[in-house]
Amino acid sequence: MQSVAAALTMVRDDAFFLKAWLRHYGEALGRENCYVVNHGRGETVAQLAEGCNIIGIPGDPHPNFDMKRWRMLNNIVQGLRCYYNHVIVGDVDELVVVDPASGIGLLDYLRKAKLRRNLTPLGLEVIHRIDIEDQPISDRIIGPRRHVRLAPHYSKPCIISTGNKIARGGHFTQSDKLFAPEDLYLFHLKFCDFGAYVDVMDQRNRVTGALQGEIKDIAIGRHWFAEARGEDRAVYDGFSALKMQEGFDFSHVRKAMQNSWKPRGETGFWQFDRPDYPGQYRLPDRFVGTI
Question: How confident is the model over 264-290, as a mean pLDDT?
């Protein structure tokens, strides 16, 4: 039994990503230290997350979905901090990975990490190059998928060991210091498989379709709405046009994060600039099998 770290997410019917989340954090931290909020009390989620701590909640559509979700996740995080040194919190398609070059796993990494700070892994978005990656994902994702693009929007302060409030979406906290270690990454999996993307987006469109009102009046990410979705195939065809970048050194990105660190207006939260970075990268061989 360990009290170093727990992982927390909320999910509704996203079986593809939940399997990856459970495999990753279940292996790294132990299923008994994984907390899954089962939005809608879905039977599939309950079955997949067996052995974890499952919190079932009602699944009625609500226009303030994201606000309610992060209010609840904030409170659960702070409750878990009474028993764990660190709590990893985020969406079910976001996984924290320690660079294998460090020679240490996630649990041992956090066992050595200092307390009373929030860690911000560098965001990398796994993209499915459908023009050259025809192998289906049957177990591990990194292997059949080897390409990523920089995603500053997903460089989130998601490893929590302070009492600071987390903003909606998990993008900001009230901590006034930025800790972005060189060997920590947050892999965002939304685009890691074309077929899974279509299935998930269909489900999210059904959720938002049940709500009344305009996009601007509903507290759910714009990308959940059918009218903001775009053409699925065109999104993936666009990945092949991204210029391939050499190497795998992102020290300049982390430096830019530090240099632009500032208060987020009068909100009480802190932020760094999140510019668009061009191109794509091929993951080094050492990352194969990490998720």
Answer: 97
